[in-house]
Amino acid sequence: MKLWSIRGNTQRLDGGAMFGNAPRAVWEKWAAPDDLNRIELACRALLASPLEGRTVLFETGIGAFFEPRMRERYGVQESEHVLMESLREAGFEHEDIDVVVLSHLHFDHAGGLLAPWCEGREPELLFPNATFVVGAAHWQRALQPHPRDRASFIPELPALLQASGRLEIVDGEYSKALGRSVRFSFSDGHTPGLMLAEIAGPEGAQGQPYGGLVFCADLIPGRSWVHVPITMGYDRNAELLIDEKRSFLEDKLARGVQLFFTHDPQVAMARVGRDEKGRFVTSHEQGELVGAEL
């Protein structure tokens, strides 16, 4: 199996919103804001092939489905569908993808499922040969969004996924599409039922997978959020997320599981460790994966 980090469209969002209650004097050391107080964010996907004999894409980024006014509002930097170009650079087309795993259906993680915006054309689902894997609790959230995050969902997307006939709703550690090659855990601090996908490594001494790779999604958007107290203003329950993140990082450290970041503009993958004060930190940072071995 080989791994690729797949660039999607980039965003610029308000730094204060991205770092929750952390003051600007703290977070601007990690992410330099522009004159509108916005920071640069990646929307990075992970491609694994062959995984359980299939070509698997973890998330799709924000894509290019927004019409121009909304693209400007949400700070999307490119009008073209960058994910399609990045897949092509890696030697794949979207028709080659067998499984798309979606941590959740907020537009900056699932918008890349859709064809680029074109005036007068209804939203169109890409990836015609893929099974779409979504967590059960979050699927219910997408069908009936709360006013707090309703604007984060694409209204047409659930119906398009259902109409494809290729939607798999996961309510447990494993999916039918991927068997035991990918193990799922769930988090509720950012959004109900956020699904965290771990590509399993070899089995360790206690029968637990060791040395795999986990797609951190919005539980840990990038290196700065590895610091346990740091959350986003977009999180629905910051205290719960902090508790979930602590347990998550302790588990990944104990089992040697590497972290994959979707929103970090510089780093795609890193190992987790602790500093002299016991705080979680990253090491062995990699900016890009190009046909890398796990």
Task: Describe what you observe in this structure.
- With 294 residues, the protein is an alpha/beta fold.
- It has one domain (2-293): Ribonuclease Z/Hydroxyacylglutathione hydrolase-like (Metallo-beta-lactamase, Chain A).
- The strands form three sheets. A seven-stranded mixed beta sheet has the order 8-7-6-5-4-1-15. Strands 9-10-11-12-13-14 form a six-stranded mixed beta sheet. Strands 2-3 form a two-stranded antiparallel ribbon.
- 44% of the residues are buried.
- It has eight helices and 15 strands.
- Helix 5 links the parallel strand 6 and strand 7 (131-135).
- The model has no long low-confidence stretch (mean pLDDT 96).
- It has helices spanning 15-18, 24-27, 68-73, 82-89, 107-110, 136-143, 157-164, 238-255; strands spanning 2-6, 11-14, 38-41, 45-51, 54-58, 99-102, 131-135, 167-170, 182-187, 194-199, 213-215, 258-260, 269-274, 280-286, 290-293.
What is the compact description of this entry?
With 294 residues, the chain is of the alpha/beta class.
Comma- or semicolon-separated keywords:
alpha/beta; seven-stranded mixed β-sheet; six-stranded mixed β-sheet; 15 strands; globular
- Classify the secondary structure makeup into a structural class: alpha/beta
At the fourth CATH level, what is the homologous superfamily?
Ribonuclease Z/Hydroxyacylglutathione hydrolase-like
Shape: globular
Number of domains: 1
CATH class: Alpha Beta
Count of helical stretches: 8
Low-confidence stretches: none
Q: Provide the CATH architecture.
A: 4-Layer Sandwich
State which percent range the strand residues make up: 15-25%
Distance between the termini: 7 Å
Q: Measured on Cα atoms, how large is the radius of gyration? A: 18 Å
Spell the H/E element sequence.
Answer: EEHHEEEHHEHEHHEEEEHEEEE
Helix fraction, binned, reads 10-25%
Biggest β-sheet, characterized?
A: 7 strands, mixed
